[in-house]
Amino acid sequence: MSITLENVVFDCTDATALATFWAAVFSSTVDDGGNEFFSSVNRSGDGPALFFIQVPEPRTGKNRLHVDLAAADWSAELDRLIGLGAKRLDEHDEYGAHWITLADPEGNVFDLAEIR
Fold first, then answer.
1. Residue 71: in which H helix or E strand, if any?
2. What pLDDT, on a 0 to 100 scale, did the predictor assign at position 116?
3. Buried-state track 34-50, b at ≥16 Cβ within 10 A, e below 16
4. Cα(23)–Cα(28) distance, rounded to whole angstroms?
5. Does 1 score more than 80 pLDDT?
6. Nearest-CA neighbor of 28 among 10, 12, 9, 43?
7. 8 Å CB contact between 18 and 104
8. Which residues contact 84 (CB under 8 A, 6 or more apart)?
9. DSSP code of 8?
10. 54-83: per-residue pLDDT in tens?
11. pLDDT tens-digit profile of 26-38?
12. Separation between Cα atoms, residue 68 and residue 85, nearest integer Å
């Protein structure tokens, strides 16, 4: 028996709004049947799906787990993500890697790394 990564789940206040942001990040679409309580992206595709579930409490503090993205055309993707609604938080050049830390529209932190 083996284990596979099926879904990455985001707690949020508006599932459709956050799913729309992340679908755009991956040049995808929000799956049919979603609403403000539950939405998904890539549910029937290859690789893990993204699930967005409405929760009553706001996010507080720093994420203990975050998504790392990477791009060859790093600068263009950074501009595109900011144009979609991401907020640039910090820049790092450590451990032999260069990345920007961003936040999605609900404040969930994620990174965009430069492929060198």
1. strand 67-71
2. 75
3. beeeebbbbbeeeeebb
4. 5
5. no
6. 43
7. yes
8. 21, 24, 25
9. E
10. 999 877 877 888 999 999 998 999 999 999
11. 999 999 999 999 9
12. 17
